[in-house]
Amino acid sequence: MELKKIVYVSMFAAIMGALGIVPPIFLGFSPVPITLQTLGVMLSGSVLGARLGPKYAALSQILFLFLVMTGLPLLSGGRGGIGVFFSPSGGYLIGWIVGAYVIGFLTYRMKNISFVKILLVNILGGIFIVYLFGIPIQAFMMNIPLAKTVILSMVYLPGDFIKVIVASLLAIKLQKSIPLSKKLVA
């Protein structure tokens, strides 16, 4: 992998860590907190993935989660260590990798980037895919029915839609600023 690509992957992993500085919002009925870090997932997919390809968006999340796994307190609220992967939030963390890949895959193949297209892709990858992994693991870890977990997870949707809008607006601006083009992808 080229040095430039390593730097960009590392930079988006660092963005995830920076977003973890913002304290989480814990809800009384769910151990899964509201955080800003899904914003980083959407940005890595819609900016890094759009320019370098989906595998680099996913690699930024893998790098970030590897650092978390080693014990660095990079998750919102200063959480870290392998134990977070065996908590009700664990499925959402794994969903970040797949979500970033899906967003990157779809944006990389777009011929004309527009706010609406990026918005729809961020909804698919940043909400639907992440929830697809997170909700079943949360239900299993909390020992509650899947349907009840889906209902509990609805409380996260307003904030996630705000993050989708912010990520989409930033992605449009940042894609114009990143000096890499799709021609450099090997």
Short description:
It comes from Metabacillus hrfriensis. With 186 residues, the protein is mainly α.
Strand order of the largest sheet: 1-2
Strand content: under 5%
Give a quick account of the main beta sheet: strands, pairing sense, barrel closure. 2 strands, antiparallel
Summed up, the helix count is 7
Total strands: 2
Protein name: Biotin transporter BioY
Care to describe what's here?
This protein has helices at residues 3-19, 37-52, 54-69, 90-108, 115-142, 146-153, 157-177, and strands at 25-27, 30-34. The chain is 67% helix and 4% strand. The chain has 186 residues and is mainly alpha-helical. Strands 1-2 form a two-stranded antiparallel ribbon. It has a single domain, classed as Arp2/3 complex 21 kDa subunit ARPC3 (Orthogonal Bundle), CATH 1.10.1760. The model has no long low-confidence stretch (mean pLDDT 93). This is Biotin transporter BioY.
Structural features:
two-stranded antiparallel ribbon, Biotin transporter BioY, 186 residues, globular, Arp2/3 complex 21 kDa subunit ARPC3, 7 helices, mainly alpha
